Every structure is written in structure tokens, then in C-alpha cells.
## 1
Amino acid sequence: MRYSGVMAMTARSALLGKLAVLQGLDVGVEPLDFHLAVLSSLRQLGVAKQIDARIPPPEPGPQLAIAAALGLPEPKPGPSAGQCAEAMLLNLMSGRVALYQMAGWLQRLPCRLFWGADICAEQFTDDRLARTLDALHEAGLDSLYSEFFAQLVRVHDVPTDRVHSDGSTLSLQGAYELGEDCEGPIPRFGYSKNNHRGLQLVLGNTVQQHGIPVVSRLYDGNTSDQVIYRDHLARLADGLCKPEDTTFVGDCKVCDAETLGALRSRKFHVVTLLPKTFSAHRQLLERALSKGSPADWPLLLERTAKTSDEEPLVYRGVALSMRMPLQEIAIRKNGKKEVLKAWTQNWSAVVVHSSQLAEVHLSAQNKAIEKERKALQSELRPIEKMRFATREKAEGAREPCEARIGKRVDTWDVLFEVVEEKKKLPRGKPGRPRTGEAAPEGIEYRVKATLRADEEGRREAARHHGLFILVCSRKVNDQHSASHVLGIYREQTEVEAGFRWLKAPLQMTPVLLHTPTRIAALGLLFSMALGLYRTLQMRVRRALAQSGHFVVGHHNKPTQQPSLEFIMTKFQHLTHVLVRVESEQVGQTRNLREEHRELLRLLGLPDDLYDAPQTLHAL
């Protein structure tokens, strides 16, 4: 992903080293890039200290006894579990490589500057990193992430008034012959969202409105979203101080009586999409359409077109009330559900019309109409080719065909009729016919089918184009408007963006680990990396919005919404040049500009961090 900059920096370092030898100087050139900022952020959060407080240092190996017997200095202890976690998080933020490639990847970086003179890249072996993953699992993955998220809230003021939840499959390769009682998530066969069946685990993420994971766990393969929602719900209820101030946002899979009842019984508020299968869905649409055309509904949101080819995105909607059925259940030891309580509440329903979604629905309808036309023509062609000697026989063939097709035609009317046609008959005697002799003729019958567009049916279907329904446990009023409900739901894309980052090429897949416990521990590190990535991005955008300032973004256009990925590219080619003269060392960062110091301030880091990289050890 970002290896080209590191490789170019390595080549440049080698060239400068050769020039230094020719001049009789001892010069080292070390790439810094954005790695220094990532490590500084991790130490600001105390990630390594948090992990090392739970995981004791590894026991001395046989090398200690061998060194004592030979009178040699004691071998260096190597990186701690916290330092190994820092190295893996640094790798995840910079473009992932497999654990067995970590030592080679770290050799390009200034490890002694990052972790001290006693730590070198060769010590980050795949065995050492794998044992760190085992130790993380034993220390408790959920509690480790809870402490990490608490630090994010404390250091960066991360809000938690809105949370979004979703699940996604993680494909695995290889053989996992595991018993049902083994620790960690169990790989199972299941279908992904693109309908591909394979061995998988399920990743469940509940994030706040900026996409920062609040709860993140790996589950057994083929785990349903409802199970993930309820598990996360219990963890959220324990971790948040005031659930009544938190809104849980989800897609239509949240909208069932059990899940909604569990949320409301714990005092969470809810915003979710009402599925079409819900009994009140069509009734709510008709009530909204009775108030007038969607074009006349109040404006909820409008986004101008980004290019001349696009149409502006317009949302309009009306707010209605409805009775929402809720249930509180308990699962007994035998696995059966028992309904403890069933009740209904007054909820708000916002029927929304999206101009963009209406275009999608119209395009889908036109494709369905054309597809049905071709299917009907293909099915009718055989009977239209048939000829019958009597009208009764033609009628006998028409009636079952008309009954069969009429039951399933949606957008076309098929008109059947029996028509009479003349046909020429062979002469009754051989030879040429005489001049003026009329050719003998006969009568035959055939079934004629005519397709006619069902305009009324199409108009009826088009009435619902672009419509969807959001339901909310709060009453829609001036303080909590329909526009606010729509804005909350649109934040659901932050969850999907987090999954796209986790499942990007060379990120979370392929998984090259053999045990579920190590996969789960790696999942913890991915959640931490995603949390740090989103937090730093949130901090920059929030600071720019509060100050009214802009940074130069893509194509040199000013923006207040830069991605952290783009900010990371600004730090490419920053290097630390170290000149050793006799017993003294002088270091300087090359290519450092005021733009970098401004970005560091926006990130909440010391603006002189790259001026004196050795201060990293003091953090």
C-alpha cells in the first residue's frame, strides 16, 4: 500500500551512506514518515504500558544459562508484549504484512529510535509475536479494548451519544479441525453477503458516530446479526454511564420485537430502518402519500451535485406516529426462549423520499419490465406457432395458457384471442391449373397473444419509488426533527467504511494464523488500529471545523474533511539524518516544513515531535 515510499527512502539512505563513507563521515539516514506520529499517539494513550501491566515479561530462556556458564554478558531481554503490540499496530496503520515478514519490514525502520538501543528488528520474530497474541487472549481481549476505548474518550474527547452496529463475514483459508469446547471463535461454513459459501468468522462492530469502535469482537462463523446486536447491547449497557442519552442506530435487521425490546428495556433510544416485511410498512406509506405528492413534502436534506453530470440529492419526508410492538425475552438453559414481557410503545415513523433512490427504483423497474417482456414473448412463441383445425381446439389451448400466465404477470396485460385464417390447400388432381382457376382454400385457427403495457399497475408501483421508512423511539418535534433522524441514520455509512478499511486488500485478509485465539487477538489489534485511525481523523476534522481553517487536500483544493490516509501521505519522505563525529552524534530531520507542524498540532501531538524524534521515549 505505502511500500513504494519506504523502498525509495531505503535506496536514498544507501546512496547517502556511500557518499558519507567517501567523505570519511559516519552518517545514518532513517525513514520516519508517519510512523513517528503513530507511535507518539499510541504512547499518548499508554497502550504498551496498559498491556505490559497485564502481561509479565517472558521467562528467561536457555540463552541466559549458557551466557552465565561461558562468562558472557547477559543476553538482552528483547521486546515486551506491549512493544510487540506497538510494532503490530504500527504495521497495521502503515500497510499490513504477515507476522513472519515483520522482522524484515521493521529492518527498514529506525527500531532503536522507536524502542531504544536494546531493541532491534531481528527480535520481532513470528514466534515472539505469536506468543504475544496468545498472551493478549489470556489477558482478556474485551477488557483490554474497554481500557483502550476509555483512554480514547479521556484523551481525545470521543463522543458516545450515538452508536451504530453491524456484522460482516471474514473469509478463512486452510483446515481448522477444532472441537466445540476450544477457546476462541470457531470457524464455520456460512454464506457471505455476496452469497459465497465458505469457511468464515463473523466480525461484529459497534462504533460511535465517527466510526470509532466502542465494542468490537470476532464471533463463530455463521453467527446471525441479531446475536451480535444483543451481545453488543449487553456490553454497551455495562460500559456506558447513561444509556438513556445514547441512540442505537442500525439497519432493518435490528427491527424486530426482541431486539427493540432489549434496547428499550435498557433505556437506549433507537433509530432504524423499517423492513418491508413489517406489517405496518405499507400502511405507513399510504398514510404518508395521502398527505400529498413526495415532491410537496417538507425538505429534510439537500446536497448539491459534485459534478455537472450529477443531479442534486434531495431528501423530503413526513413524520407519522405508530405503535411499535416490543418483547423482553429470556433464554433458558435448554436453549428455549421465554417471553418475560410484551408491550407496545408510541414511536415516530419518518417516511423519506430520496431523489437518488427514486432513480435507482425507476431503473430497476424498467429492467424488470424489459425482462418480463422477453420472458413472455419466449413463453408465448410456441402457442402462437400452433395451428388448429377447429375453433374449439384453439379455445382449449388458449384457456390454460391464459390462466397460467395471467397469475404472474406484473407489468404487462396479455390479451388472448382466437383468430381465423385462410390457408391454401393442395389441388385435388394432378397437373397445371387452368387459366382463371381459383386455388382451393381452407380455414384454420390460431391463438394470438398481444402484450399491452399495464400503465395503471406501473403508476401504482412508481408511487413507492424512492421511499423508505425510518422509525425512532423519540418523538419527532422541534428539538428532535425529522431532518435530525435522517442525519443520524445516514451516519450508518461510517460502520461500512470501517469494514471496508478492515477488509481491504492486505489488511485483515488473508488470515495466516492457525488457532482461533490468535485470530481473535489479532482482531483486537485491528480494532485498536481502526479506533486510532478514526480518532485521529475525527480530531483533525473537528479542530478544522472549530477554527474555520482549511488544509490543502486532493488536487490542491482546500478542505475541512481530510482523510487520515491523505494526511499520512504528507509525511512521506521525512527522514532522520544522524551524523556521528568521534563520540558525538548530531541528528536532524530532513524535508520538515511548517505544514507538518500544523498537522501535528491538529492531531494533538507536539509540533516539535519531528524536530527531536528522540523525545519519543519520554512519552
## 2
Amino acid sequence: MPVSDIQPGMKGVVYTIFEGDQVETIDLEVIGILHNAIGPKLDVILVRLLGNRVQQTGVVAGMSGSPVFIDGKLVGALALKLGSFTKEAIGGVTPIADMLEIEQSSPPAAMKVAANSSSQVALPEQFARSVAAGSGEFLVPIDTPLITTGLYPETLARFGREFSAWGMTAMAGGTTAPSPEDSNLKPGDMVGIDLVRGDLSISSGCTVTTVVDGRILACGHPLFGFGSVEMPLSRAHVLMTLASAAASTKVITTGGTIGTLTQDRQTAVMGKLGPGPPLIPLDVTLDTPGEQKSYHFEVIESPQLTPTLVAAAAYNGIIGSPAYGEGPTLQMDGAIDLKGHTPVELEDFFAPTDPATPAAFYLATQVQSAFSRIYSNPYELPQIERINLRVKTLTERRSAEIDGAWVERTAAHPGETLAVKVLLRPYRGEPFIQSIPVTIPEQTARGTLQLVISDAEFLNRNVQSVAASSQGQLASLEELIQLLNREHHNDRLYATLLQPTPTVLVEDKEMPNVPASAISVLDQRQNPGRARLLWESTAGQWSVPMHQVITGQRMLTITVK
């Protein structure tokens, strides 16, 4: 039924599930049409749901996509709700014509749309009076349940904010065994969109609006708003509907894979029945003094979601061991395997530096950062083949802070070696002195130089920030990977000799002590391309392994004669 045929006061029904797989009908009444509500020529049909069921629950998270029929004709999908704590179950319906346009106007798969849920729809004054709502009320997308199995409360506390930013309500759910009947969908059934599977599962759930020739339309609003996607579709089952004055929701389990979600658009999501898309295998092995545990996950490949999902899965696997506590130091050894490229190395030490933040969180966020930098590269869309993480827990907290540094003499000639002494204060125990032999390179410029005694983070962030600042200036993804693999490690103590001579960065190459003539040539070029200039050069760098996390920095002055 087209929107032009719909009039205020018309009666209809909405198909949805409150429990089990039994689709129920809920009566409704049309309040009116909100023209151009969510965009040009994108209308919303405002309806009032009727009956004892919805008087208790209101509009429920997971109802998104529930098909609405008037006079036996499909009108659209229930997709919006009116605020929170409302006394009536008021909803917004996305017209079916707008949902069907997805298949006709879908762009090629390479196109990506920024993540965003439907905008709030202001409720006009004439409709606000008819539904007893105050001025300034909005219709908002119905929450999409984020069903999690095997997710620890600690993991949800650490990553819940990012889940909420996706417009989803995280809650415990479950998984069920696949059934041959899973793909037999009808309007009103529930469908899951799987994000993580395996020893941890994370899925979202929507209601099916219609199924035509193996194609599914659901939700009535975007899931993430990513445009063309490839995510597994699974059959979802409703255990129960939890009534709440603030936000009622369906408690859901997901079954076997039944197809692939292909489009995530403004007015609906669309998928096709059949096989699911390939997923990224993620293996996490946790070595503790008493045991070894292995976890296996499969994660969707999405530049927007994969970094967070991998970090959450890794964190969840680490804290799940009874031998893990918030005090131990973690040693990570892993890799991200990419098709046609050198693996991204994931090697470092992590110790808690904040009593409220365990070392596992620092490890997980470093993995997340590596993924984000790989996915945000401007050269090509990477194809992740596998992720392997091996994490070893060390029984004590191994960390030390740089408390002081000095040299016996502050002047030297090129070729001479200086004994640099560094005072380190461990987390517990007596301070100790670590020596770093620094040999002044023969080509070092004469004059006053700075010797930086530091941890890895200081170098990565300040002195040698090539990897952080070169993205977009390189020739390829492979060069970015090489830069990432050269970053400094937390368990080493570094001494870096800096001299006040220019350095030219060309792609992933570093050219120190560039003569003034070369700089003049670069300055005269209107477009220097991938060459950039730093007004400081690294004359040399030395490090010693410490087998513990080092923090802090000190500056020394060296005169080269």
C-alpha cells in the first residue's frame, strides 16, 4: 500500500514475536504521516500500537522491521519509537516503497558509507498533542539488541561505550544448534546479524519485514549505516520479552547461518539467503604458570567494526583465565596475516600503570590501534587472513620508571664511547642502575646535541613519529606495515642522540643530515610529493632489553668536539 493511500484513523496490524518463534499480531491505528521526516521524500507513518501486550512493554528493542499491514496490504516496517517512559506505545513506520528502493539503487560493494543511525525525527506540534507528548519530543530508531554469549561483565564495562555508540543495547543472550528449518523465514520472524562467533559470540537482532525470492528486508532503519557490507545472517529465536518502563527488549538466541547481509542503508537492511561470507579467524593462546588455554573466534571483516571486535575478543579471552589477575605483566607475541603482504607484528610487554586499568586492556587497545591504522590506510582495502595472539602472563608486576640519568663526562669526540647511567625505580624493590654504552658515530655533527633517555612510547609519539605521521605520504600499504613493524617495544630502555640538522622523510625512508642545497630544491618545488622535512636528525640510537615495562624519559646534553 503506498503512503498516498494511508489516512489517519485507519486500522491495521503489526506482526512480531514476544516469545518463542510464534508470530503474534498487534492491532494499531494510524495517527498521521510525517512527510520528509528523515530526508527528502522519505516519509514516516506515525502509528499507535493497541492491546494489553504493548501497554506493558511499549515498543520493544528488537521490534525493528516488524511488518505493518493495513487491509491485508504491506505498508512498511515498524522502525522508530517515541522517546522513553511514554505511556502509550507510539511508533514510526518506514514505508515499504522506501525499503524496496535499496535493491534498485544499491551502489557497488566498494562504496562505504559513514556509520550513523537514522537521525532523530522531531514530532510536529499537531501530532504531539494527539499522542499526549510534550514539545521537543523525538522519534528515534528502535534499539537493536546486541546479543552476547560468553562475554564477561568486565569486558562489557570496558567496551560497552563503543557498543552503545553503534546504537545497540548490549545484553546476555545465547546460541542454539542449527536446524534445517532456520532458513524458512516469514514476515515477523527474527533474524540475527553475527559479528563474532566461536568461544565468544556477538550478534545483533532485527525483525524480518518481507522475504521475496530469497532476499530479506529487515529493520526498517540502518544497522550501522555502512552501505554495502558482508555480514553473516543467522536465524534468531526469542526466549522472552523483558518489559521495562525505560526500555523493553527481546532476549534472543541465534542459530545457524542462513545467508549474508549485503546492504545496510537508511531505510532498511537487505540480505540474501544462502551461504555466509568468509570470516577472519582469531586465535588467542594464554600461557599462565599453571596452564595453557586456547580460544578460537571468527570475526567479520569490517574496517569500522573489526578493530573493536578483535580487541574485545582478545580482552575477553585473557581475563577469562582463573590464573589471570590485574597485577601480572603480559607478554604478547602475535601477528596479523594479510593477503599479499608482510604480516603485521604484534610484540610487546604490558604492565598495569593505573590501579583501575588492568594490563590486558592496554594489550587489547594496542591490537585495536594496529587494526585501525591498517584499515584506515589510503592505499588499498586490506584482506585480513588470520590473527594469532599468544599472551604469556608473568607472575609479578614487572615495571620500572626512569628516575634519573647521567654521564661521567659530557664531552666526546666522534668514535668515542660514553657510559650512560640510568637510575630505574621498579614497582617494588630497591632502585637500580642500568648502563647503556653510547658510541658517538663518526659522521656526527660537531656541537651541542641532546641525548634522550626514554621509554618506547616517548619515542613513538615524539622523537621518531614517522609511522604515526607518514600515513598518506607513503607509496603503499606494504611500506606502512614496515613502519609499524619498526616501532619501539615497551620492554627496552632507549638512548637516542639527536642533532640539530634536518632530516628528509621520503616514503618510509629516513634521510638524516640533509645538506642545505637539497632543502632549497625541496622548497622551490610546488609539490614535493612524498618528501617531508624535519628540523632534527637522529645521529644514533641504542637500547638494552629490560624484560619489564619501562616508563619515563630524561634529557642529557652532550658536546661533540
## 3
Amino acid sequence: MPVAVQRRAVVYRIRPCLSHSPAAGARPPALLLGCCLLLLAACSTPVGVTRADPRTVHRGLTSNVLSSGRLSGPTQNVLFEQDLVESFGADPEKALARLRAVVVAGEARRSDIFALAELSFQHAEDTGKRAYFLASAVYAYAFLFPGSGHHAPDAFDSRFRVACDLYNRGVAAGFASEDGSEVDLHAGDFPLPFGTLQVDFDAAQLQKDNRQLTHLIPVAELEVHGMETRYRWPGIGAPLAASTEPIDPALGFQDLVIPWSKVAVTALLRIDNPRQQIVTDRVHATLTIESPSQREQVDVDGQPAPIEIESTATLAYMMAESPVWQQEIAGFLKGVGVIDEKTRLAMLAPYRPGKIPVVLVHGTASSSGRWAQMLNELFNDRRIREHYQFWLFTYNTGNPIGYSAMLLRESLTNALRRVDPGGTDPALQRMVVIGHSQGGLLTKMTVIESSDRFWNDMSKKPFEQVDLSEQERDILRRTMFVHPSPFVRRVVFIATPQRGSYFAGSRLAHWAARFITLPMDMVHVSTDFVLRNKQAVAFADMGELPTAVDNMTPGNRFIKTLASIPVAPGVAAHSIIAVDGDGPAEAGNDGIVEYQSAHIDGVESELVVRSGHSCQANPHTIEEVRRILLEHLETN
């Protein structure tokens, strides 16, 4: 052992100096001085301390095979106590077998079980042998939940959390697919270094909420980029991100779950009386899949234990595989063919009865991906997670705003009919809609009564008197005559150009708008209306269908009319207004929208956030949305 060898070397160098030192006068002074210095060095204490940076000392005390690749102090202690330091370095499997023999002989202490877990994991990582990953999980479980007749470790034991992580990582790696890219959960007999692990698993657990879980990814192996925060709810079990697809392919998108949805699940390997089983050559275990959306803790040995949840990594993984980023500019320029009608309104996870929908509506040349940080924060607030479910609305942002708002209202109405055809879930009647920028204008159009105001901007004649086909009349009625959606009870406007955007009025914006392809159904309606009702046209340039840029240009008929219509009675509205810089808010803007445009009277609250226009990820914006949602829970 290095310490012992060092100490013996010091002792043997000291003794010759003391026994055979000649008289001082027999040697020259310089040589005598050298001998004195050597004597002082040889006589220094073999055990001592050196003051060091506390961080360095702390790293040494808390280091383990998972965090640094080095064995923890407790495991190194066990190796020394069992005289296995050199043996483990030379032949790890032989050393592990010797330490296991102590366990089988009934002489094991809790520290020996922990050491077996950590040593097995290190050897598994060094060799890639699956059997040792599984052995690590088995030993770690035996340390954490020893079973009847044994005491569980104290919560203050530093090894407790390390053992949880060894177990979680051991389960994920022990059931890894052949190429290591996924986790393959299944029943069967699995080799252990000392025998067999018999695993029971009901494959029906891979079906949840009428969807099949596929492609289970160990999120502990994922680095997250683009998120300001990463939330991990520590507990027991291997956290996984699972893709989902309808069990019946014929059902397609009927449950409204976004096709690239990823859900967080946790794999748990249960072992009854593990301290008794690990002394045998056959360990029996049951594998289960836990869903954090349904429960966040499980019963182990009669005690509640939280399951490990990695929600941020799952959300980031979902967003990374989402096509929404490619839709941002394409969705602005193309009126059709970019945003699939089936995925216009989508849920992040299957519908949950009793949870209030929060619908997020993005802005111009943007996408639902821009809500990622806000979703991450809100979903990791237990108060929010237990009472709300999040839906995303995606649309082609170059289209006329009235047309996009019509699609939003109808998508919400159809969604409620689909998920709750009997109208039995009162939570669905308390919907909250949150819109950023142009999305805020769409949001407002879910809670207003327009009467014939938009129509009068277009026509001098009453709607019933113009010459239109029934199909054209139907689409104009749905677009021009806006009624409040009765299930929307609260709205939040974020950086919304209530009176238009000065940027939308710029030459650059109008130049870009020239490349927008508008929806053909609206183009045909607009053209036919002008050709067949020339005397009814309200203004000269009516022949050209306006884009969203036109609609948001200050002074435009549409934006002036929308700004003049109040939010319907009984609906709570809130404004979050971005202002860049430190000057007076009333004279400021966010680079796109003036404060004076975003400010409206009659709202429940208004918060000014010092930020540029894209303020959805600003912590003050998120905190205000959190506050509003919690306030909403207290209202009827």
C-alpha cells in the first residue's frame, strides 16, 4: 500500500542517521550542515496535514466513480480494510469475488455492500460488461432497501445519494440495447457475475394513455443546450425519455398529441429482500415503468420513495427533434403546406381530465419552440404541474390575422369536442390562452364580440346582401364575425402590438411581406367579393388580400378596429410589456412594439419587463405568468 510503504521508507532512513553519526569535528562544516538538513528531513512526521483550498478538500471527500471516475473515500476504505487495494488494481473481478465472499459468509457490513456497488460499476464502465452494471444496480438496491431484519442507511449518509445514482445508472446501462443508444426493457434471465438475475416484466406497461412507448432514451446521458436551467427531481429509478405513437395507427392524430412528443418515464427494478437474495446465485426482480405524470413516488419496503424525474432533458430532447424550427420563416412566407392542419393545435402529452388547459400562441416568424424555457420553468413547479396541461397552437404567421384567429378559435372548440364529447370536465371551461406578439392579437380574438365591425371595414353593404357563394359566405362569416369562446376565462398578452407594430410599418417589413404566399381560399373569396360586389367595396385597395404585416401596420383598418373592441365581460386579461433599456417605460419600446401600442386599459395587471421583444424566456415574464396561473386557481 502506498501510504504504508512510504512510512516504512522513512523509518529505515532515520535509523542509520541515529546509529552511525560521526563526531561533528570529523567532517567539514559544509558537509556537517548538509547532514543536519538531511537529518531534519528524515525526522519529519510521516503523518500530517497541509492547509488546502476547501474546494479541493471537498472534491476529495465527495468524489466518486460517477462524478470523477475515482472511487469514493468509503469504498477506498473498504479496499484497504479487506486488503484488496492491490488485488483490485491487478484483477478487479477476483477482488470483487473475494469481497462478495464476505457477504455470502454473512460477515458483510453495510459499507461492504456499497463498495460492491461502486466497484462493480467502475469495472462495468472499464470493460463494458453488462453483468457488472446489473450487479451494481442489485448491490446498490440492497444497500438502499435491505429488506426485513436490516436497517436502511441514514439520510445523512453521504453514500445514500451515490447509491441511488449507481442504481439508476446501473439499471439504464444494464438494459441498454445492443448499440447502447436506447434502453430495451424486457423480461428474461440476465447474467450476473455471480449467477443470474431473473426479471419479470409486463410488456403491457409500454402502453399508456392509448399510446405505445418507443425508443426509450437514458436522459442521464444527454447534455442540454439552449435551456437556462436544468431540473432534475432526485429519486430512485432510471429516468428515460420515451417517444410515443398511437397504439392503433388508424387513429392517427385523433388524441391531439404532438407527433414528436417525448414523455418522461422511469424504469424501476424491484428486488424483494435483496440482502437475502444477493447471497444466492439467483436474484429475482420485477421491472416496472413509472409515469411521473400519474404519480411521483412509489412504495418500497412499506415506505414512500420519490422516483427520479428528468423533465428538462426530456423537453429539450423533444424540442431538438421537432420540425418547428424549420417552420419559423417558412410559416411566415407560406400560407399553406407548412403547418399541417392535423398538428395546428397539439398537446405535449395526452389529455388529462381535471387539468386546466394553458394554450401558448407564438408570434410572427416564430414557433412553439420559443416557449421551451417557460414550459421548463412552469412544468417544474409542482403547483402548476398538478393543475395545468399545456397545449401549443402553431400557424402560418404571414396569413391575415383574422384568418389565423379563426383557425385558433375553431381548433380549440374542436379539441374540446374531441377530448370531452360529453362536456363533463369543468377544467376545460377554465382555459387560459397566452399569446406573444402577433399571437397576442390572435389570443384577444378568442375573447371579443366584434359584431359587424370587421365586416364594415370591408363592405358598405350588410353581410346578407352581398353576392357570394355559400362556401365563400361561410368562410367570411367565420373570419369576420368574432364571438367570445366561452371556455376561455383568462388571457395573457406578451409584447403584443395592440395598436400595431412600428416595425411592421417599416419598408423592410413590407418588402418581406411581398414574398408571402397567402391561403388560396381567402384569396379566392377576396377576389370574388371585389369582382361581384364592386359597389360594396369599402376602400380602394380592397382587391389585394392583406397579410399579417399589413394588419399590424399602425393605422391599418384591421388593427384599429381590433384595438377598439374590449375584452368580453367575465374574462380576466393581463399584459406583460417588454421595454428595452432603462428609460421611462411609457416612452420606450422593445425593438418591435412601442409601449404605447402594447398598453391597454381594463386589464387585471400590467408588468413591464426590461427586455427585447422576444421576452418569453425572460425570468420576470415567466414569474408573472406563474403568478397569473396560480391566481387563476383561486378563482371560480
